[in-house]
Amino acid sequence: MGKNYYEILEVDKNASYEIIRKAYNTLAKKYHPDLQPDDKKHIAEEKIKLINEAYEIIGNESSRKQYDDSLKQNFVSIDEYNAICLENENLRNIINNLQNKNLSQNDYYTKRIIRPPKVPSNQQQSNNYNKNDFHFKNNFSNSFKNLIALFITIVLLCILWNIPLVQSIIKNILSF
Predict the structure, then answer these.
(1) What digits encode the pLDDT tens for the residues 19-49?
(2) Which helix (H) or strand (E) holds 140?
(3) 167 in Cβ contact with 95 (< 8 Å)
(4) Residue 147 CB-half CA count within 13 A
(5) Under 8 Å CB-to-CB from 131, ≥6 apart: which residues?
(6) CA-CA distances (angstroms) from residue 101 to 58, 93, 110, 113, 153?
(7) DSSP 84-107
(8) 3-class SS at 76?
């Protein structure tokens, strides 16, 4: 969906048409490009385009109904939101546990997480066992765990991004 027209016009989704019209008029005056300094005209023009677009949609009864219906399709109930938050907390705990289990580089070489298999003495010469292979496997294993943790984090962020509350929190954090 991307744009929340109610947020653009700074009104509640249950606002009457009169309140929406007043909000539109107030914002149109506030961000009118002719009333802005030269260095802020471009920003004001973009803002006024968004304000006009929002008013065209939610200022009209039929288009507002269609817009509200599309919002309801993307709506997440409080139970779903709580379940996502719980899953997020569980995933965060799993990631923290995985990070805590990773040994430092010195511990890795002294404690050897993956031990080489025991090879019977008659096969030792033909096997040409290379100790570095196990270092690679363990590094690969840790890299793979980190990759999985990153993937889970990205998927979780994508899921959470669809929640309007999370979007507004992230936007507020990034605006500082």
Answers:
(1) 999 999 999 999 898 888 888 888 889 999 9
(2) helix 131-161
(3) no
(4) 6
(5) 116
(6) 53, 12, 15, 11, 18
(7) HHHHHHHHHHHHHHHHHHSPPHHH
(8) coil
Among the listed residues 165, 166, 168, the one whose alpha carbon sits nearest the alpha carbon of residue 156: 166
The tokens 């292979």 sit on which residue?
133
Whole-number Å distance between alpha carbons of 27 and 50: 11
For residue range 147-176, what is the model confidence (pLDDT) as tens digits?
Answer: 888 888 888 877 777 778 777 777 777 776
The single-letter code of the amino acid at 88 is N
Q: How far is CA 62 from CA 4, 69, 143, in A?
A: 17, 11, 53
Nearest-angstrom CA–CA distance, 76 and 82? 10
First-residue to last-residue Cα distance in the chain: 24
What is the Cα–Cα distance from 14 to 8, expressed in whole angstroms?
Answer: 14
d(CA 174, CA 176): 6
CB 1 within 8 A of CB 71: yes
| Model pTM above 0.70 | no
